[in-house]
Design goal:
The chain is 24% helix and 26% strand. By secondary structure, it is of the alpha/beta class. The chain has three domains: 169 residues, FAD/NAD(P)-binding domain; 141 residues, FAD/NAD(P)-binding domain, CATH 3.50.50; 82 residues, no CATH class. The strands form eight sheets. The chain has a five-stranded parallel beta sheet with strand order 5-2-1-9-20, with helices on one face. A five-stranded parallel beta sheet has the order 11-18-12-13-14. A three-stranded antiparallel beta sheet has the order 6-7-8. Strand 23 and strand 24 form a beta hairpin. The chain starts with a strand and ends in a 6-residue tail after the last helix.
């Protein structure tokens, strides 16, 4: 009996469990998935919790609901991978042998990496919305907050779901407007980037959108520490920004065991071939989703597109064939803009987001790089698609490779800026 071990049962790990269960001969293979948490979180939904758009039950389900019945499931912390021996050591001391290993443990926020961020104001006047607990605490704060200086601050890149901080800014603008206190709230969007987003075409559109909503963009701000006593964020070059309420996107890191195992970079992301999704250093280790250091967005759509390529390449590896499947960096993201509207972007390693229709020419029904109500409906519909199709490894009509159909060809040949 040969062993496939999957570390992490979030979006990427669960998709790969379901895909490989269909592809492998289960008379000769044992699939084991390891995770420390029995609850599956719909992480894109955390964005909506602070604004009362989603409730807690919308974003949580038991992980076991999405596992094949004969999969071996272990709920445990991972202590270390021993790649030279093809073994995984769990915190309990249990050892798992593997012939193929998939790392799918994603990324986590690491507020402890920034001086003062987890100080006395943490979850009092400083909040995150990238965790279930943080989003819930922020919802409680927003329910009674009467205004002041709201700062939305990205500590450093890369981060999970790079559009989420922009979405938060747009939704905050609409939320306080609906409450009738927008004039009492000043909003600043603080980022280490030189513009609003990682893709220039998108930044040009969304940067103007921030301005139109009265949200001040503060670029090139690299946060060094948080002054809790004086309620300031301070950059490495000693610039200061005052806040009454700070919504932070802390440093993102990969899992701790990745570092302990010598498998990761300085942020515990695994060096990975961006096309084949195989570890750069171990031929029988593959990586999916946020755990990889590839130059693609850390987003659920990326993990979905990667899963098709990764499943194919794992079968190539098992059959001792060249890894012929190539991931092109395809990502698409709905971007909530407030008041029941949203944008949609679609891009890959080489091509910037452009205007057009998606997924079909002319009929869409979604519009690229434009604000529409249909895009907002698509964003909300995605939760149903996620629970019922995506993490179950079922096929969706959007392929892993970025299509040029419906896109404005006169701009699409402009190369992307990674």
């Amino acid at each position: 009996m040969r062993n496939l071990v999957i570390l992490g049962a979030g979006t990427g790990g669960t998709m790969m469990l379901n895909r490989m269960h269909k592809l492998l001969d289960m008379d000769h293979w044992r699939i084991t998935i390891v995770d420390c948490d029995k609850t599956h979180y719909y992480q894109p939904g955390f964005l909506f919790l602070p604004f009362g758009i989603y409730k807690e039950s919308d974003v949580i389900k038991p992980k076991s609901d999405f596992f094949p019945g004969d999969a071996a499931v272990i709920y445990s912390e991972i202590w270390k991978v021993l790649p030279e021996y093809n073994k995984v050591q769990l915190e309990s001391g249990e050892i798992l042998d593997y012939d193929v290993l998939i790392i799918a443990t994603g990324s986590r926020i690491a507020p402890e990496e920034t001086e003062g961020l987890k100080g006395e104001l943490w979850q009092k006047d400083i909040f995150d919305f990238y965790t279930f607990e943080g989003a819930k605490a922020l919802a409680e704060k927003f329910s009674k907050w009467e205004g002041g200086k709201l700062i939305i601050s990205i500590t450093e890149m890369p981060i999970k779901c790079p559009v989420a901080p922009l979405e938060f800014a747009f939704l905050a603008d609409a939320f306080f407007e609906d409450k009738g206190i927008r004039e009492k709230v000043s909003i600043k969007y603080v980022t280490p980037l030189s513009e609003a987003f990682t893709k220039h075409n998108c930044s040009e559109v969304l940067g103007h959108f921030l301005e139109d909503k009265g949200i001040e963009l503060v670029p090139d701000f690299n946060t060094g520490r948080i002054d809790n006593e004086n309620k300031k964020i301070v950059s490495w070059d000693e610039r200061e920004i005052d806040f009454d309420l700070l919504v932070t996107i802390p440093t993102n890191k990969g899992a701790d065991y990745v570092g302990k195992s010598g498998l990761g970079d300085e942020l515990n992301f695994v060096p990975t071939d961006k096309f084949t999704l195989r570890s750069a250093n171990n031929e029988n280790i593959f990586v999916i989703g946020d755990a990889a250091n590839i130059p693609a967005s850390k987003a659920g759509s990326v993990a979905h597109f990667e899963s098709e390529i990764l499943a194919e390449n794992i079968m190539h590896y098992i059959n001792k064939e060249p890894l012929e499947a190539k991931y092109d960096g395809h990502a698409n993201c709905f971007i909530e803009s407030g008041h029941g509207k949203a944008f949609l972007i679609d891009f890959n390693y080489e091509l910037e987001p452009v205007t057009g229709s998606f997924p079909l020419p002319i009929v869409g029904p979604f519009s690229l790089l434009k604000e529409t109500r249909m895009n907002h409906i698509g964003k909300l519909m995605f939760r149903w698609v996620y629970w019922n199709f995506l993490i179950r490894g079922r096929e969706l009509p959007v392929g892993s490779e970025m299509s040029l159909m419906g896109k404005d060809i006169d701009t699409i040949l402009k190369p992307a800026t990674n």
